[in-house]
Amino acid sequence: MNVTREFAERIASLAQLLLSEDDPDATLRQLAELALEVIPGSDAAGVIAAGAQSWSYAASAGTVADLHEAQLQTGDGPVAEVLRYGEARRIDNVAEEDRWPDVCAAMAREQLNSCLVLPLRTDRQRGGAVAVYGKRPGAFAGSSHDIALLFAAQGGVAVRNASLYRSCHRMVGNLQIALESRAVIEQAKGILVAQYGYPPDVAFKRLSVMSQNSNRKVRDIAADLVEGRINRDQFGSG
Asked: What is this structure's pTM?
């Protein structure tokens, strides 16, 4: 396969995946689909990424998802070892492979005779792995292996970008909620200051006491007061 300018740009574009996508599995699905498209010899593919306390993965076929799930459960197989050690693993021919007999048998049943599993690099943290499967033996030798290495490098950047985007998106959402809560609490305090002449700290204390007594959040009590759903006389000193 000739590495044309167009092909090089397609590989480089992997790093831009999911910069505006909310679905946490979208990057993995896109990477699995692109792996089939750009890595010569690929007949099936799957991508596994690290979560906070678990792994998530997407695959081009249910059989690949089953292969990966079994390895994640048992801790045995090329995918499991790549995730554990961060090193590449390759099977050139399941009929001649002595390692991972259960995985090889499962691949043979699906007429997948070779595979290549590469780590996805995301800084110094465990990032995951990309696995490609071929129907013919030796599908990932030579230039195909080199292209897969390039794909995995850029794929790791894509996963990292997606993770950063989702983290920033959550942070912005939480900040917006915090700002809105503060605004309504300040409005409620202003109402109590105007009606009863409370100092601002005493007005907030009144809101807090109502919150504790009703087992509701201060911002919800404040919103009810501002919207007139609570009788203001409940906050009086008398």
From this structure: 0.59
Of 134, 159, 160, 156, which Cα lies nearest the Cα of 64?
A: 134
Q: What is the tens place of the pLDDT at every residue in 46-102? A: 888 765 455 666 677 778 889 998 998 999 999 999 988 888 899 999 999 999 999
Which domains does the chain carry?
5-163 (3.30.450.40), 170-235 (1.10.10.10)
The answer to whether 40 touches 1, Cβ cutoff 8 Å, is: yes
Burial environment of residue 46 by CB neighbours within 10 A (0 to 12, 13 to 18, 19 or more): buried
Using DSSP, state whether 166 is helix, strand or coil. helix
Q: Which residues contact 72 (CB under 8 A, 6 or more apart)?
A: 48, 55, 79, 80, 83
Strand 114-122 and strand 125-134: pairing? Answer: antiparallel
